[in-house]
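Here we describe the complex-level prediction in full. Unlike the single-chain runs in Section 2.1, the two entities below were treated as one system.
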Amino acid sequence: MGYEAWILLTGSLVGISCGMIGCYLIVRRMVMLADAISHSVLLGIVLAFLVSQSLNSIYMLIGAAVIGLATTIFIQWLYASGVPEDASIGIVFTTLFAIGVILISLFAKDVHLDVNHALMGEIAFVPWNTIVIFGAEIPKATATLLGITVVTLLFIIGLYKELKITSFDAALALTIGLPVTFIHYLLMTMVSLTAVGSFDAVGAILVVAMFVVPGSCAYLLTDRLDAMLAISALVGVLSAVSGYYAALWWDVSISGSMAMMGGVIFLLTWIFSPRYGLISKWKKSSTPLKEQEG
Amino acid sequence: MEQIIQSLLHDSNTQWVVLSTMLLGIASGVLGSFALLRKQSLVGDAVAHAALPGICLAFFIIGEKQFLALIIGATVSGLLAMYLIQLITSTTRLKQDAAICLVLSVFFGIGIVLLTKVSQQSSGNKSGLDDFIFGQAASMTGSDVYLMGGTAAVLIVTTFILFKELKLITFDPEFAKGIGLPLGVLETLFSTLLVVTVVIGIQAVGVILMAALLIIPSMAARYWTDSLGVMVWISGLIGAISGVSGTLISTLGLGLATGPLIVVSASCMFVVSLIVAPKRGMIAQWTFHKKGIAAKTTGSYRKEGA
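The structure predicted for the assembly as a whole is:
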């Protein structure tokens, strides 16, 4: 596979895994939590580096999962002690992120772990850093993302019903004895893993765009969860691919351009969505009430 | 420590930087208290991220790093982001958190795209726009510092003049309307004050962490009091201390950006408040429990805190 193909594949995998997880975040109203986790994951990566003294992605994934869970628990704990939810999120992730940035500047400046890279990713470098798996040479980041996408798919297919019920009717889920809290933390772990896996490709801030934009588009297009997951993955791939070509065209940051194209797709969906778009809304409100009822 | 005292005593630029970050800390502490009570804490986060494209566009138009122009650009795109969040929330079935996140990440993406264009144009990072991401108060000079400090002072004074009105629209908008206050005007005014606070703080604290300066001091202050008047003072004080200590530590020459240091200072004061504040603090709550009083009202706290 050529250089370009690897980049497109990597971006698309980010779009698929983040897009599908993002659907659950949107219907569960937990998008800000994902925003918080994708920031604080930076601290996890730095700590993993400081402890293991290597940039091995296994350590990074473990570090990120631990800090991701810690973020969720801290937020939950502050919330339970009376701090409003948005404020608890704001306090926890900014603090952890700030500590991460300070640690990088103090201890990890000379290694391949600079802050800009962590924030914006460097998908253009992905194809050069390869490993050999089953005799085939594939880029490290792509391999990690492939693994994460498979895990995400297994997670969603395996726990489809459980996720659906806990997302849409938490009270029912509790009554029929589903482990609601466990599923919540499992989902948050998936968010941290996906965030750190996408880190190399799109960076900490723009992974948020991949979590929220495709899911939001899908949410405006359909009422069915399975369709929403599929549309969201598709929009994720679309913004990654169009973002890459737009970046080539203007010679700008690829990850930034992916987020921007996601924004463009959202704008189009917002205006033209047949069910919830601005135009259909405007048409509905201008048709007489009787017709609507009939 | 000696180094800090030296530069504080002898370097007039440091003195001015410290004074303006102090004013910035007070302004964001004060306005952050209102934002917190109006449940708008994270809107500040979106505005700060969204300021980045405005800053880059202003740079494109002016062609140099002129602080006033950058501030105007940032304010315009910050206000646009705020408006878009409201528009998305009111015209679609997306909730506010999704709308905030969406606007924040897309605007930031556009900002990064423009930033790469800017650095291509101005051969390397000479533009210094990178400082806007994490904040570098120590590198600010002359007129930028006066502008930041002066604007912060104006924000503080405006808030205190309008204190009663802002308090009313925060706690009882219906009543405010009833006694004939121009609700719409005041709401817009408050949003503008908030956006301007975020925007002037960006060069010192950076777009990513600016929101922390609105949220953390005010939440820390909330632990000490139930009165808005007192809360605003404490919050301003905590903001001021964090601004000053963060700036001073970053002048030590360890290559640390100001923003993260300011945030960590504020967080330390938050943790102290969380533990020792009378009545609401953890120690107070814990001893309260030991005595076996009001187990019902604080039950949930104990369960989670244990």
